[in-house]
Amino acid sequence: MRLFLTLLLAIILTLFMAAGLALLLRHDPGYVLLSIDQWTLETSVAVLVLFLIVAFVALYVLLRVLIGLLQAPRKALQANRRRQVSRSARLLNRGYKELVEGRWKKAEITLLKGAEHSATPSLHYLGAARAAQHLKEIWRRDSYLRKAEDASGPDVLANRLMRAELLLEYQEPANARDVLLPLRKGDQVHQPRLLELLARCHQSLGEWDKLRELLPMLKKYGVMGDSALTELMTKSYADLLTHVAHTGTVSDLQALWNEMPATLHADEGLLLSYAGHLQYLNAADEAETLLRTALNKNWSDKLVVGYGEISRGNRAARLAVAEGWLNDRPQDGYLLLTCGRLARRNRQMDKARGYLEHSLKMLVTPDAYQELGEVMDEAGDKEGARQCYRAALNLLTGRMTDKEGVAELAGEGPDKLPGAGQPSLTKEDPPQPSLTQNPEPSES
What stretches in the chain show pLDDT beneath 50? Predict the structure, then answer.
């Protein structure tokens, strides 16, 4: 089609030029004589010019046809290559769509089909590796990862990161770490994804000192979104607090707390964890000061229950502080529970019973029943204690009925009840349900 259009355009131009030349030469057509050996050519200028134009056009068209014929095989190959690349791109899109949909086997087959002729074969192999891992075909996964690395040439960062991520998902943090550590050089030292994966490796392996070095860098280089970074740092520092509490001193623990980002100091879970570790290291007074200060700034049901679970130190002073809060919050069920606990630990049993019974009028919790049962048990009321213990147990399991003579709770599952299986700050007393990290209780 292109050749035809070129030829047509040449003919049209020739006709226009001939017409123009005829107009110029209509009065005097001119005379041309060519003599070659015995041959003589006589013609007008107009005819000669027209002949030369036609000859030039014919020669040009002939050359274009010959060049087109010579280039035809190469152009055919290029067109075929473009079709293959386009097909590979479609297969890549379809394969990743199948990955997102969880159709692992189809995704693996689709991605491999387009890998050979793709402009980005490493993406095909990386996707196939993820699909193979979901299918538990680890040898195939490793084979695809090697192919992806070979296809990517000298730029292996993306492939190594994907390999490490897959190893982490398959619970192989040591192997993932070994893949990542050689990448920390040159411009890649502060690569965000590399830092994030390394932090996860060190956390899984319990390499706390190395994790501690990475955490400030995670924040400095904007490794991830604010919420994801806060979640990772919260979990990491919670593990670090536990590690330091069991291997270091109070000073080490306090140094780690001061090293933490200020925004994490307001996290109630970390506050309670830190207070519990302080108590574990015989620094109950510091734990009490920490929670009291936090409660005076921002009241929290979770923290006030944690305050009552500090069992060491000056219990009488803590009871006085809690009763001071009670003057402003006389109907706070959580605070009444804390006052009851502290009164019992101060051996003020009548006051403890009053606080706990009042707490149960405000809200029904297994902790309050447990504490009240212990108060009754120590007072010799075995039947009352038995009913309280049963009520606490049934409340935790969601089987509370009016037959217990204490409360009515029907149709609630354990996941909606308070006090289910969470650690307590108390170290001296026997383990008991804690409200510090539990769902909200039912209102009485």
Answer: 401-444
